[in-house]
Amino acid sequence: MYTINRAVLRPFAAALALVSATAFVAQAEDAKKADPALANQLDPNAPDKDQKLIDNFAAVKVEDGKYFDKEGHPTYHITNDGKKFDWYAYSGYRRYHAECHVCHGPDAMGSTYAPALKDSLKTINYEEFIGILAGGKRDSQAGQERVMPAFGDNKNVMCYADDLYVYLKARASGAMPRIRPTDKEEKPEAARKAEKECLGG
Ligand code: HEC
């Protein structure tokens, strides 16, 4: 009787061990979320912070200096009381002001011609953003035609699509107020490599 019982119990013991292993992994995941290396340290006095978006856009993973949110999309990492930016947010700021601000206004504030992307990016997701960037958008309502050019063939834009997206997310959530970033994380080797491949290929 005793031996039979032990044999019957063995799979339960194994299952129990599996459950605790799973619980351990879940705990480890939680611990990872609270990883101080991923947390933002924003300017406490920055106006227009949207805490819900800031939480949504929070980084849960970093890979070669590139941060990703819980949906696996690129996101920003801002530290030192809002003064230090990850490479992609910094690069996105510069690309934006080279390629987009003539129409969309400085700091993504919008103009009479084109919408404020600091508002658009509250709702436009990554896939939509890349689609609009590559394919353009046209609004001919009210007689006045407004055209968002298609940048699909422009490497100076498309090679930095993620940088632009990360910067605009930082603006949309209010994590980045209207400032010119100076301090930044080092340019990752992966960014150097991807840039070279994208521009050259
Ligand atoms: C020549 C002017 C011009 C330039 C340059 C330009 N855009 Fe636009 N963009 C527009 C206009 C106009 C619209 C609105 C089109 C519409 O409503 O259909 C727009 C719309 C958009 C939208 C959709 C916004 C929304 O709320 O629907 C995104 C995203 C966008 N632009 C991103 C960019 C980025 C990023 C750059 C720089 C790489 C850029 N644009 C450069 C004119 C421009």
From TrEMBL:
Pfam family, one: Cytochrome_CBB3
Signal peptide residue numbers: 1-28
Entry keyword set: Heme, Iron, Metal-binding, Signal
Cytochrome c domain: residues covered: 91-167
Feature: compositional bias, Basic and acidic residues: 180-201
Protein's UniProt keywords contain Signal: yes
Stretches the record annotates as Disordered: 177-201
Source domain of life: Bacteria
Molecular function via GO: electron transfer activity; heme binding; metal ion binding
Protein known as: C-type cytochrome, methanol metabolism-related
